[in-house]
Amino acid sequence: MMTPSDPSYLQTKRVKQGAAAMSPLFGRLAEWIAAEYRAPVPLNIVFDCNEPLHGPRLDVVFERRRDAIRFMNDRTIGYDAVKQAAVKARLLDLLRESGESLPGAERLFVIFSAFDAPARWEANSQMTDARIAEVERAIGSIAIWKIRPGFATAVIFLHTDAQVKMTESGDFRDRCRDAYMAVLRRFDEYGYFQDDPIEFAFDSRENFEAKYDGDWFAYDR
């Protein structure tokens, strides 16, 4: 999974922001992928000749996860080997046609990634303690024990299981979501949370301490 610190993400972010562009070679490959598979044109294609696990690697980065998973196998836990081979073969053809070269292209390992997931993660990572405190003030409820952001989620902890149960009716959960999103939108540079709102969960300090012995590592597993 691509993370906000990955070089592929950082390079693609510059493309998304208009500060960089794909090379003409990769631009032609991206257009071929879109036409061949009736998919959106990949946002970026990143070549890494020093990838330690698989050797030379080509990362085809789509903007949306829903497009990238079309290039996974049926269980979405591995890449579609047929599509990997086809993209590699097309790139080798383009290299021959253009007279260009890439080191290790014959051993190329093709992967498919999505930009939106790490971008959402990066935006949600801006929800610092000070910004969470701002959310809590906006909600204005003593029932809240802690608001804890995840990768692209947020868990709102109340003090007791009974309080969590009580929030199943009424507008309390909606008010929590609205207050959180009002702050998060400042960092939603690409509007991804507008199209696909952040996932919220509600839990209790009582459950956290009883079931997980107050251990965040155990809770996050």
What topology does this entry show?
Blueprint: H1 7-16, H2 24-37, E1 44-48, E2 57-62, H3 65-68, H4 81-98, E3 109-114, H5 116-124, H6 129-139, E4 144-149, E5 153-158, H7 161-166, H8 172-184, H9 192-195, E6 199-204, H10 205-212, H11 216-220
Parallel strand pairs: 2-3, 5-6
Antiparallel strand pairs: 1-2, 4-5
Helix pairs in contact: 2-4, 6-8
Short description:
With 221 residues, this protein is α/β, with parallel strands linked by helices. Helices cover 46% and strands 16% of the residues. Strand 1 (44-48) and strand 2 (57-62) form a beta hairpin.
Verbal overview:
This protein has about 220 residues and is of the alpha/beta class. It has two domains: about 5-115, no CATH class; about 125-220. The chain has eleven helices and six strands. The protein has helices spanning about 5-15, 25-35, 65-70, 80-100, 115-125, 130-140, 160-165, 170-185, 190-195, 205-210, 215-220; strands spanning about 45-50, 55-60, 110-115, 145-150, 155-160, 200-205. A three-stranded mixed sheet has the order 1-2-3, sandwiched between helices. A three-stranded mixed sheet has the order 4-5-6. α2 (about 25-35) packs across α4 (about 80-100) and α6 runs antiparallel to α8 (about 170-185). It is elongated, with a radius of gyration of 22 Å.
